Amino acid sequence: MFDRRLILNFDWTLLITTVLISVLGVINLYSSTYPHTGTTTPLFIKQIYWFTIGSCFMALIILFNYRTFIRFAYPFYVLCLFLLVMVMFFGRTSSGSQRWLQLGFISFQPSELTKIALILSLTRFFTANENPHGYGLRDLGVPFLLLAFPLFLIFKQPDLGTVGLLVLVYFSVLAFMGLRRRTWITLGIGCAAAAPFFWHFLKDYQKTRLLTFINPDLDPLKTGYHITQSKIAVGSGTFLGKGYLKGTQSQLHFLPEQHTDFVFSVWGEEWGFVGSFVLLFLFLLLISRGLKIANTSKDRAGALLAIGISTMLFWQIFINVGMVVGIVPVVGVPLPLFSYGGTSVAATLMGIGILVNVSMRRFMLSH
Fold first, then answer.
1. Which of 179, 195, 261, 282 can pair with 183 through a Cys bridge, CB separation 3.0 to 4.6 Å?
2. Comparing C-alpha atoms, which of 151, 127, 152, 126 is closest to residue 139?
3. Could you tell me which of 309, 292, 319 has the C-alpha nearest to residue 352?
C-alpha cells in the first residue's frame, strides 16, 4: 500500500526552486548564444533536452528508498572509475582536455557522475563504520582511497576544477563526521607539504591560471583578459542591468566561454545587481533546503547524503561565481543548472532527487 506520508513530506520548495533556476538558466543560455545561426541545434534547446533526461533520472531516484542507492554505492563507484579509465583511452578531446565519452549521438562526462558516486561511497563507509569519539588518521585509509582513485584519473584529463571540487566535498563530509583535532592538524600539514609536489605536475596553462589570479597583468591577452572582461561585464550591469539581449560584452562575444564557465557574467551584465541577487538568493534557498533535510533526517545515512549533495552544490556555486568576479582562480567549474552542460545538469538533478528522497522518507525508522 502506498504511504501518503511520502507525499506529505515531499519538499515542494526544493523542487520549485530547482525548476525556477533551470528556467532562468535556459533564458540566460538563449541570450549568451544569441544569435542562433547555422544548421546545428541551438545550445539552449539541447539544454532543455538534458533537463528532460535529468528530470527522468530524478523521478526514478525519488521512487526508491535512498538506502537502496547506498547499498549499491560501491558498484556505482567502480562503474564510474571504469568510465574514467575509458576516457583516458577513448575519450573525446576538446579545448585540450580529454573528458568526454561518446555514446552514439550523445557525449557525456563521467567525472560529473563521479561526484555523486563519491558522496554515496563515503556515506556507505561512514554509516558502516561509526565512531562517536571522532575519527583518527588510521580510520581514514579507505575514505582516502575512495577520493584518490578518481582524483588521479580526473587530474590526468586534465580537469583541475573537478579535482578541487571533489577535495572540497571530501573535507566537508569529514568535517560533518567529526575528526579529532590532531587529525585536522596532521591533514593540514600534509596538504601544505604536498602543495609543491602538486604544483610540479600541473600543466603550464594551469600554472598560468593560478598565477594570473594573483596578478591579472601577468597574462593580459589570455587568462588575465578573461578575468578582466568578466569583471567588466558584471560591473557594467550596475543596479538594474542593461536589459535582456542587450549586454555588450556578451553580445559582442568579448566574454570567453560565456555559455559555460562565465555564464554568470552574462546574467550579471543583463540583469544587474537586482537580477544577480535574485539568482544567488535562489541558490541560497536550494542549499538551505538541503541543509534542513540533513538536519531533519531520521538516520545518519540520510543526513550524510544530504550534507554531501548540499556541499557539492555550495562549492560549485562559490567557485563559479567567485571565478567570474575574480576572487577565485579560473578552474572551469560549471554553475549548477545554469551553465550549459548535459552531464552536469543530469548529475545535479540526480543530486536534487537524492535530497527529495531523503526528505520524503524522514518519517521512516532506519533498519
1. 179
2. 126
3. 309
